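User: Can you fold this complex?
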Amino acid sequence: MKALLRAQAAWVLCLLLWAGNAWFTPGFTALAWQDGRLVGSLPDLLYHGSTVALLAVCCVPLVAAAGVDLALGALMAWSASVLVVGADRWGAPVGLVLALVVGMFAGGCTGLAIVRLRVSPLLATLVGLSAWRGAAQLTSGGGVHYATEPAVRAWGLWSPLGLPVLVWITLVVVIVMHLVWTRTTLGLKCTAWGLNARATEWAGVSLLPLGIGIYALAGAAAAVAGCAQACELGAADASTVGIWRELDVLVALVLGGASVSGGRVSVYATVGGALAAETLVMTLAWQGASTATALFVRAAVLVGVLAWRAAPKGTVR
Amino acid sequence: MKRVAVGLVLVVAVCGIALPRYWSAKLLPDLLADAAVPGVAAIGVCFVLACGSLDLAVGSLAACASLVVAAAVGAGLPPSVALALGLVFGAAVGFGMGHLLRVTRVPAFIGTLGGLFALRAAALWYAEESLAIQSPAFTEWSAWTWSVGDGRWRPAALTLVLATAVGAYVMHAWHMARAAWVVGADEQAARQAGLDPDVVRVRMHTVSGLCGGLAGALLALSSSAGTSIGANGLELDALACAVVGGASLLGGRASVVGAVLAAVLFAALARGLQFAGIADAGWGRLVAAALLFLYLLLDRLTTRARAGQHSP
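Assistant: Here's the predicted assembly.
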């Protein structure tokens, strides 16, 4: 029973939050159909939760490899700017492809620096945090850049079966990642790297392509999330897109039971963690709490969960 | 430290040759004033890096401290007391955070990342954007300058020089700072030698908090306001300065003078960009990141990875 509860903790928390909301938040379960789109609190939650879930799930391999990515939000901003500016200049499809390439390129560079230069992931992604945000400001010429290409806005409104397309993308990515993580050797290799990098290298796993690949995956996820946000708003704001997203992702991973020092993480639980984290944030918003309060609560949850988990054993360092 | 000094001389020389009016009697005091906030924060970061810990909350802490100064002046306290309160606040928060890390056993980067967000939230609760200081006495303090020839030394520049001297002395003379080097290099060995790593780490976080508080006081002094959104990314600047100055994220290696020289190097570069007519925030961020990357590359090429430094 205890083991079952531990494995499902994130989902249990998520369901508890939903039950609490159904009880306390008026209109939480209300659904309506408007302009070919399902509207209401739950679809909202699903949409915002899927951004976090997409990012967190694509961070699973690098977290297993004892890495961390603090540059996700900045990379979202850069790819959003690239999409909007590229769509204006060469058309929306080219803009989208460019944004994805930028995301993967930036992530790949991070991975290269981590494996080849032996920079700690923390420092490498902190450098990225500054560099990508700067690149975003240069791309969009500073400030907000509005999309003039109608296709960009049309993608933002596109909702197959009533749900935004990002939700479906996330669903597919989650299923594929779960299968890849549990059925192929990727999970084994990343986890081994997180537990002992040198031993993994000596066991014949080549860390360079693996490192570039897993950081490029996180970069691609950030690009998709950034593009989705740009399409939704029909504009890219280089200084606010993706701000504090890396905190959401960390909270999602930690709620999903991941160890931040590597070696233990699950795709399934991370999705629950992402939904729980986003539900928590939106619950606070519905209860009228300020953004500062939401920020504080997330930080407290992050530290609190890790502290609670570290307490009985004494050493997670 | 030698490397960063060479880099600084190179940057100043190249900028001086390429850009007219870059070299002047104003250059040194202005560079020191520009480098004051990140430089002072970097001194504190050197102490935490030495003991193998991290502090990502310096930026938010500085913002909070500047609000404390603004609030204290608003309550009618004299400027000296208000600025001192900012420092005390910083040290207290640093101590609290170090103690929290000690008790909860959360990895330092997560714990202080939590501190980053929590302190920023606290600052936003207190003031929406900023809290202006309207006190004649305080304005007098912030407008004070000491003219030497053409150069005008502002309080921030003098504080940086003083803080560097004190920091460098404390790093070598204080037994706790020396213990921090041992703890950072090898915690097990430190324990065997009778040192308590937990106590050392709490002390070093207190020092870092004190420096963050000083950075906040300088922010309040230079802008005559407490800010709740300012000093964003200061933790990265401070960390970058400390690393370029010769500190290792793995602990056991840090240089106060090197970190401050690195802060002056970044300031010299930013001033060069400004003189070249590129005062864009985007370029500033990119160039700083590229410089840090270049440093890491050089570091990797010139020093062989030591055993045990095999960080993934």
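The CA atoms of residues 8 and 81 of chain A lie 38 Å apart. Chain A touches chain B through 61 residues (CB under 8 Å).
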